[in-house]
User: Fold these one by one.
Assistant:
Number 1:
Amino acid sequence: MISDNSAGVQDATGEELERLYRDLDALDLHPLWNITGELLTETPRPKAVPWLWNGAQLRALGERAIDLVPVERGGERRVLSLGNPGLAGRPYAVGTLWGAIQCLGPHETAPAHRHSPGAIRFVLAGSGVWTTVDGDACDMHPGDLILTPSMHWHDHTNGGTESMVWFDGLDLPMIEALDGVFFEEYPEFAQPQPATRNVSEVDHAGHPGRFRAGAVTDELDPRSSRLLVYRWTETDAELTRLAAEADQAPVSLEFTNPESGASVLPTLSCSMHRLPAGRPTEARQQTGNAIWVVFRGEGHSVIGGQRFDWAPGDMFVVPSWIPVEHHAATPADLFRLTDAPVLRALGIYRERALDDPQPVTTTFTARTVESAPIPATASASATASATASATASASASASGESL
Ligand SMILES: [Fe+2]
């Protein structure tokens, strides 16, 4: 009968289709027609979520790590990386960017190495530290930006008597995604100290191409900037000049490669944003990810309709295409790291301003841990354990690593 035959054909088709899917799965093949919507999204759908890490907590935990964990070969650095809760436990602040706080106690040196991922340092507090970059000892002060470009040897030394903390930003997640990560230890624990310091800074002193108002829009350069240090005193002066020209409206500048006018690294854009109290920025969407570091002042940002209150030392992230606007309650300076040069090089950078401020639907509460005193027994046990670990480590270093 016709109806029976028709049902038979449908059953056969259903079974055959199921077999097709099973066979595709067995051969690791994915039928695009079932996943088009999840791959080709109308707009970017970053897995990372807007988030904020409290600066006071970062600093307190960094100080605890200084007391408990030595800096040595193998671990290389005393760094606390920002892990975005949307990234399933990966140690990345957003999909393409590493963000972290690095801490160095008095008279400590973090050993010399180099790697293909490029890095930048933005100093938050402390004095007496320098980073030696391919033999150039670059002094570090609060507000300074220091570059350690791809495959440049670098070590950090604290020659002072107080701890220093700084923000570390790297392109590590994107270099990892490109399967391009290389890492090498320097043959000695640290590079030789040169007689003349801050050579790149002296070579580019007063160069007008160190900054540009707003952001780089056209220039691209596969080479990193040869200027390795951007001093806060000069950044501050330039922001003051720009704010005066703008009738004290919010202003920003991007740090640039003096030779080409491009962003400081081929993968990373660094910029500073001066926000006067009571004059919010417009809401904007940009492709690519951003990490913001609060250097000075208090206020809040609205990110995707969520309010994030911030204070000095706080770090927050704005994943791709999520609208953001900033409101300073006191005069504020914010540092920003983005992957914009990569998106511009690929021709997929987009940016737009929203017509209206975003309505605030929720307020973010940063996670905190109580800094309750450690019980005496637990404290003694932890100290003994750390000492044993440090001793074992020192022993291994003496027998293996060149110190
Ligand atoms: Fe490094």
Note: DSSP finds eight helices and 24 strands in the chain.
Number 2:
Amino acid sequence: MSCKKIGNAIICGPSKEYKVGDPRPETDSYFDINEWAETQIRGGLKETQCPSCNRWKFPQEMSKIIKKEFAVSKTMKSPIYRIKLNICKKCANGE
Ligand SMILES: [Zn+2]
């Protein structure tokens, strides 16, 4: 986040402009995270839910590591099948 003093007011906003596909900013600044996320959405990127931490992530936050899950149909009549889901980079790094 960057703040500027204009007269007696302090105006805060994102510290930089973000582009589509940029990695998630390493900051706790609401302004930066929000600006970054809105840019990704405007650019047409869709979030997917990480099967490990259940957080919603943009494609550039996902790892190539796949988690295999077994799913069972609700009726229990059809066979168990396996779904492959990518986990996010944070989970892949054990963070
Ligand atoms: Zn995750």
Note: The mean pLDDT is 89.
